[in-house]
Amino acid sequence: MPIIFHKNTKEFHLYNDEISYIFCILRNGQPGQIYYGRKIKDRESFQHLIEYSLRDMAPCTYEGDRTFSMEYLKQEYPSYGHGDMREPAYEILQEDGSRITEFTFEDYVILKGKRKLEGLPAVYTESDEEAETLEIYLRDRVMNTKIILSYTIFENLPVIIRNTRFAHEGESSIVLERAMSLNLDLPDDRYEMVELTGAWARERYVKTAPLHEGIQAIYSMRGHSSHQFNPFFALKRPETTEDAGEAIGISLVYSGNFLGQTAVDTFGVARAMIGIHPEGFSWTLKKGETFQTPEAVLVYSGEGLGKMSRTFHRLYRKRLARGYWRDRVRPVVINNWEATFMNFTEEKILKFAETARQLGVEMMVLDDGWFGHRDDDTSSLGDWYPDPKKLPQGIRGLAEKIENMGMKFGLWIEPEMVNKDSRLYEEHPDWVIRVPYREACHGRNQFVLDFSKEEVVDYIGDRISRILQDAPVSYIKWDMNRSISEAFSQGRKAEEQGKLFHRHILGVYRLYERLTSEFPEVLFESCASGGARFDPGMLYYAPQCWTSDNTDAVERLRIQYGTSFVYPLSSMGCHVSEAPNQQTFRNTPLSTRAETAYFGCFGYEMDLDTLTEEEKEEVKEQIQYYKRIRKLIMEGTFYRLISPFEGDEAAWIVVSEDKRHALAGYYRMRQPANAPLKRLTLKGLDENLCYKIKETGLEACGDELMRAGMAVSDYASGIREKKERQGDYQSRLFELTAQS
Ligand code: GLA
Known about the structure:
By secondary structure, the protein is an alpha+beta fold. The protein is built from 12 helices and 38 strands. The strands form 7 sheets. Strands 6, 7, 8, 9, 11, 12, 14, 15, 19 and 20 form a 10-stranded antiparallel β-sheet that branches. The protein is globular and about 90 Å long. The mean pLDDT is 96. Residues 337, 367-368, 412, 479, 481, 527, 529-530, 546, 549 line the site of alpha-D-galactopyranose.
């Protein structure tokens, strides 16, 4: 039983072979945090770890006792007031204007497995034996409101999953103004905060900064998880490296506004929390109503950031991503976007597909521009009817022709959006999120449909569903290309407005749920101007996501490396595009572009007819190569070897579960003159197995490769004859196969 309750001391201990999470019910009935980290043996009481001591100026709970102050106690789900002056996990506005609450322990329940969350994406179990869930019931007797804190611990993963539910049973309404998914009070602040930050075309760069007194936060207030910050952060010890030391990863399974922060008080306590961003959020609860927060995933690693990431990968690949495609290798696609933009005809697409087919591509994806009269980005979003000028026989006509060629057909949609120049906007201007009597920003000339309204979601759902019923569409690229900038739901009452952001994202989830259930064998790839919604919430519906609009191989090394902090290779859409690259104007070898893109869901995003015969032959070989190794990429364990954020090189390796097969990628951005000698040390191999390396013919055992490494020095300059892989932006692959 990985969850123990000690009745006498009112302490809960959640543990498995790797971690312990211990908290108690404090004297005032509120839950107090005791320990989270590497597993420790259970005992009746850990109360001695809670420090009660007299501190001047402290607001104290009990008369005659100056040692019990919530200001200094570590808590599970703190409020403002009753002594605690730090950032609260929740805030409730009551009818009399007060915000003081007092939630005290009432009961608990331990369940096998894990509950589903209504309307929200969530980690799941496949059998009840995989995990146990503890629910703690707290009640505020004045408001007559319940808080249910939920904790799931997995049997075989160093993971705790938390969420919070509010159930209001009182007569007077209350307003939730803040409702974090998770709060974790850590007993010291000797941590660095690791974040994934960026912008369009440079998503998820790894940034690390030491904690300091005060608040360090990541957030989105854009209505989606954003390019700028990912809903993830880690707290690591200053000495923690990729392979050693403590790291705590915190990830939110949500695609809307979020706040992730660590507040360090002046007594060295670090309070970490993550959840829906309180800005613009206010949720009225009437008698009998409940509010469910998204869930947050807490990963503990005592073996560096690498182990933290591998834990996220295992969990998210197998117990968050779902459905038909979860365990299947993904098709090699060709996407026409960077080759044609919106300027195409059926004939052009068929030609494009035919060349790709001859080279081994399995699916043709038709991107933006196929509907309404969309020749540029000023029109037609919302009018999901094929443009007869471009597609005389509609989507069905084109899709059938593609299928007859022996390929699958995929389609781009952007269901949450509308252009002013569209029939949908003309008919339903009130379906747009904006304040009707004020100016509203456009983003890429488009506006966001109000998915908090059921009729809007149903209308768009019907349209898209009709297309998928009518034509053999095997893949959907679901795009989302702007933020919400004037949050207002037209026609709704004032007290409903604070629900818009969350309801909107619930509407997005509802549409995803509908379409993925109606078309379970369609492969969905999420996308948001590249990777602006690369988050765990999306992964629950779409097992892969377009990683970035930046397809330059050098930039992609950083982007894919950063993305791998949380997300598995099976979730990263990675395509080879033309050179010079459209985003960076950089010229990289075709081999480097492919050898970077292999580490994800592979495809091409270029006009293959512009290639020379020799290059086409190279593409053909690349596709054959990927087909041979894609199972390893999808299912293997990923180890980062060299960070592209620290120098001029990058390297990583993916190792099969039985450790008999592995593929390492080594990338060098700039050719150094008279290059230093270099060994690459590998990870994740079986030290007792001997491997043969295909590209070099070397035979060596795992222990040697992981300790002594392999020589991968560059050719010295001064060599006159032309050698392969000289110059800038070069890559090398090493495929390892165990012998006997
Ligand atoms: C976004 C996507 C691109 C492409 C365009 C189409 O930017 O990220 O891949 O689909 O939209 O408009």
